[in-house]
Amino acid sequence: MKTPQPLVHSVASAFSPLAGGPAWPREGSPPVREDAAAQRRQRIEHDFQAEQRQQRRSGRRRQTVLGVLGVLLFLLAWEIAPRVVPGINTKMFPPPSQVWGVFWEMTYTKGEIWPHVGASLQRALWGFIVGGGLGVAVGVLTGRVTVLRQLSDPVLHGLRAIPAIAIVPLAIVWFGLGDVSKVALIAWGAFFPVWINTFIGVRDIPATYLRSAATLGAGRWATLAQVALPAALPFVFAGLRHATATAFVVLVAAELVGAEEGLGFLISFAHLVFRVDVMFVGLLYLGAIGFAADQLFAWALHRFFPWYGAEARR
């Protein structure tokens, strides 16, 4: 009859590698199963991110190709229409092949377009800065201060209904024929889209944001600067982007009267001498500059405000 071994010795021999049993896990040894699961998760995440990047690149390439194709189709239709449609005078409606020669001459051969482009850009930029800045400030204040909103609502909404072109004579009387009147008109046009969007964004902030700020001890001005304005940023950006297009619309109206340089002046002067091709060159530059300004604004949003990227890439 065998003497029974101690219980401790039996358990130890059962987990001994020499006895064929499972070994005790060594101190500091990596958990094999957890490492394998983590590696699988990393591979899945990497493959998903790579697929997302590939889809974004494909989307951008598709958008670029379709955009270029749309421009080419537009130019083709423009080239054919004056030659096919009866009753159209090609002097009054020149095709792109005729406009291109004037465009090249004004842009590269003589370079006479650049002073007009520079003057228009300077006026549009200053008007956008003044109008946009005032629009954001007034929108935040009227959105948060009830008394100020009730006082200013009839006046601001009434002024918003007046088109900028209607106050061109008044601006000339007040500010003269120089750049001040033109900047003031552009600021007038840019102010209202920014103001109304900022006002709506600040007014409609979720109440939970405001209650949380009050719970943390934020005062009125701290809530305004650190809660209200950041929460309304999507509306502010929408208003500013709208204001970029409005600035160029008002720019032309401002430069039609009392200007000596600018794309609006160029179009008006070409109209007086019946140079429709020069008018088309001015219109093409206005469209190209407006498109470039919009895309630059969208790029800046995506670059400096990544959380707004879904709208910025549109």
Question: Which helices and strands appear, and what pairs or packs with what?
Answer:
Layout: H1 7-14, H2 32-84, H3 96-109, H4 114-144, H5 146-160, H6 168-175, H7 179-203, H8 207-215, H9 220-231, H10 233-255, H11 263-272, H12 276-304, H13 309-312
- Number of DSSP E strands: 0
Q: Output the structural class.
A: mainly alpha
Distance between the termini: 88 Å
CATH superfamily of the largest domain: MetI-like
- Spans of 5+ residues with little confidence (pLDDT < 50)? 1-24, 310-314
Helix percentage: over 70%
- Can you summarize the main beta sheet? none
Q: Can you tell me the overall shape?
A: flat
What is the H/E string?
A: HHHHHHHHHHHHH
* Total individual domains: 2
Q: Which class of the largest domain in CATH terms?
A: Mainly Alpha
- The name of the CATH architecture of the largest domain is Orthogonal Bundle
Binned strand content: under 5%
CATH topology of the largest domain: MetI-like fold
Average pLDDT figure: 81
Number of helices: 13
Q: Which radius of gyration do the C-alpha atoms yield?
A: 33 Å
Summarize the structure.
The protein has helices at residues 7-14, 32-84, 96-109, 114-144, 146-160, 168-175, 179-203, 207-215, 220-231, 233-255, 263-272, 276-304, 309-312. By secondary structure, it is mainly alpha-helical.
